[in-house]
Amino acid sequence: MNFSSICCRFFLVTINLIVLIFGVLIIVNGTTAIINYKENTESVKQVSESQNHTSDAPDTAPSYKVLIIVLVYGVALSLLCLLAICGSCCGNSCKTALLLFAFFQGLIILAEITWFVLVLIGIVKLWIANPIEGQKIVQEITPAVGIVFSVLLVLEVLQVIGALIIFSEDEPAEKIRPE
Question: Looking at the UniProt record for this protein, which Gene Ontology cellular component terms does it annotate, in alphabetical order (predicted)?
Fold first, then answer.
């Protein structure tokens, strides 16, 4: 293993540790949001029953799906980071881990895009159902979601680049040794 490979492995581990922190924060916040959502849903149902409105209950379903997806996303992201960290610390035997990492990273990116679209749909539905609350969410939550989403995408691109560099450096090393 040469110096550039060691630096690349260190870089990949560092990036994955940063993303792992994001993943843990997403798990914690997602769990808290689901608990709060259940409490809020009960109060909304009570209000809608007192006003004889039953159409509000189905409109909240996509929001709950978004919270579940966010929680699963946080768990998957954290496990993926651990896989990449193990793969980058295993020397030349990390090829399988790096291939798994690349495959699951693609799934994670698809999940992120799905999650982002569902968040937008949820915000639009909420805005239509309750313009005041919708405007409040757009002002308070949307910028934070956009920043987190953008930062995570940049970090994940760096993850994939680092993994590909390590994978391409390990392969020639194995081919040279038998000769």
Answer: membrane
**Which parts of the chain register pLDDT below 50?**
56-58, 172-179
13: Cβ contacts below 8 Å, ≥ 6 apart: 85, 88, 89
Please say whether the beta carbons of 63 and 37 come within 8 A. yes
Do 109 and 92 form a contact (C-beta atoms < 8 A)? no
Domain residue limits at 145: 3-47+57-172
d(CA 88, CA 99): 11
If one counts the domains in the chain, the total is 1
State pTM to two decimals.
0.60
Provide the pLDDT for residue 161: 78
Give the separation between CA 142 and CA 25, rounded to whole angstroms. 17
| 177 belongs to a structural domain | no
Indicate whether 52 belongs to any domain. Answer: no
Distance of alpha carbon 82 from alpha carbon 76, whole angstroms: 10
Q: How far apart are the C-alpha atoms of 169 and 73, rounded to whole Å?
A: 30
For residue 61, which of 125, 147, 5, 156 has the smallest C-alpha distance? 125
The C-alpha atoms of residue 174 and residue 38 are separated, in whole angstroms, by: 55
Q: Are residues 67 and 5 in contact, defined by beta-carbon separation less than 8 angstroms?
A: no
